[in-house]
Amino acid sequence: MASGRRDVNLEAEQAVLGSLLADPACFDLVADVFRPEVFGDAAHREIAVEIQGLIAAGTPPDPVLVLRRLQARKLEIPPEVVFDLARSIGVTANVRH
Questions:
Q1: C-alpha torsion sign, points 44, 26, 7, 4
Q2: Which of 79, 80, 78, 95 is nearest to 18 (CA)?
Q3: CA-to-CA distance for 7 and 40, rounded, in angstroms?
């Protein structure tokens, strides 16, 4: 870490975001540690921002809402990135790990 570069665990980031998109109730399991700024992948960080914003507003996040919010901010994150996160998760029970 001497270079200042943070190691990114893309699979872990995908699992957390995918779990939240597939089952928003999972947020209760990670609420105390969920911080968008800890996501190393820029697209994942922005998706996390939108998920957190929707949850704070009392709206369950889903891929369509997240994508619309990203597009409203003029972020060029391909739609398949968001939808693949939601589709790729098999089990949400381990989101905390």
A1: positive
A2: 95
A3: 7
Q: Is the pTM of this model over 0.90?
A: no
CA dihedral in degrees (64, 66, 72, 76; nearest 10)? -100
Determine the Cα–Cα distance for residues 78 and 94; give it in Å rounded to an integer.
Answer: 27
The residue among 59, 9, 95, 41 whose CA lies nearest residue 50 is 59
Residue type, 19: S
Cα gap 6→78, rounded to integer Å: 24
pLDDT tens profile 44-59:
999 999 999 999 999 9
Alpha carbon dihedral 27, 29, 34, 38, in 10-degree steps, equals -120
d(CA 27, CA 95): 9
The tokens for 44 are 């994942």
